[in-house]
Automatic annotation (TrEMBL):
Catalytic activity: XMP + diphosphate = xanthine + 5-phospho-alpha-D-ribose 1-diphosphate
UniProt protein name: Xanthine phosphoribosyltransferase
Binding site for xanthine: L20, N27, K156
Record's keyword annotation contains Kinase: no
Pathway per the UniProt entry: Purine metabolism; XMP biosynthesis via salvage pathway; XMP from xanthine: step 1/1
InterPro entries: PRTase-like (IPR029057), PRTase_dom (IPR000836), Pur/Pyrimidine_PRTase (IPR050118), Xanthine_PRibTrfase (IPR010079)
UniProt entry keywords in alphabetical sequence: Cytoplasm, Glycosyltransferase, Purine salvage, Transferase
Stretches that traverse the bilayer: none
Length: 194
């Protein structure tokens, strides 16, 4: 997606050989026009799937997911990383190891918001090792629902996330695929397409 690739090149910064900072439009400040177009792009890529729900994880997954869910006219559910005060039982939960933060997080979704009839589009802002996405897949499975696919805003293709998801048979659609961040330079797997 050209608008996204340009935002990454012009407004992102490479923090190290494997971390890209995109606080300017995705992880802190949000570029609303870009999010609207990201939502539309996800919908066009999954237009053959009869999606009934979008599932993401707080907090940075919410903005792009909201746009896709709104465009699809289906509800958006976000998994929580912190224990909720009001939702304490009746939950699906999955352990997600954060490689970047070197810690285990328990993600939870209330059983009220996912059921066996659902066909779920999982969306997240980044795909790195794939642990967050696999945790969301696990939650969908626990609900007896089906996974329509995984939509990612920025995939770091040099990490194993996509491989792990595809190995399990899930379709992955990433709007920007980064081949390398070496030497402070962003290289995309696909050319900037006009
Ligand atoms: P994984 O889920 O694919 O295994 O990735 P990992 O545990 O490494 O990711 C932990 C957090 O770091 C996630 O956000 C993820 O979106 C984010 N992340 C991973 N790689 C990058 C990167 O190169 N740049 C940026 N900006 N973020 C990255 P989170 O902790 O869930 O935070 P939130 O922003 O959603 O609140
Ligand atoms: Na995220
Ligand atoms: Na994030």
């Amino acid at each position: 997606m050209k608008q996204l690739q340009q935002a990454i090149l012009e407004r992102g910064s490479v923090l190290s050989d494997d971390v890209l900072k995109v606080d300017q439009f995705l992880n802190h400040q949000i570029d609303t026009n870009l999010m609207i177009n990201i939502g539309k792009e996800f919908v066009s890529r999954f237009q053959d799937s009869k999606i009934t729900k979008v599932l993401t994880i707080e907090s940075s997954g919410i903005a792009p997911s909201f746009m896709a869910a709104s465009e699809l006219d289906v509800p958006l559910v976000f998994a929580r990383k912190k224990k909720s005060l009001t939702v304490t039982d009746n939950i699906y939960s999955s352990g997600v190891y954060s490689y970047t933060k070197q810690e285990m997080n328990n993600i939870t979704v209330s059983k009220d918001y996912l059921s066996s009839g659902d066909n779920v589009l999982i969306i997240d802002d980044f795909l790195a090792q794939g642990n967050a996405a696999l945790g969301l897949v696990d939650v969908v499975k626990q609900a007896g629902a089906s996974v329509a696919g995984v939509g990612i805003v920025i995939e770091k293709s040099f990490q194993e996330g996509r491989e792990k998801l595809e190995e399990k048979g899930y379709r992955v659609e990433s709007l920007a695929r980064i081949q390398s961040l070496k030497g402070s330079e962003v290289t995309f797997l696909e050319e900037l397409v006009t």
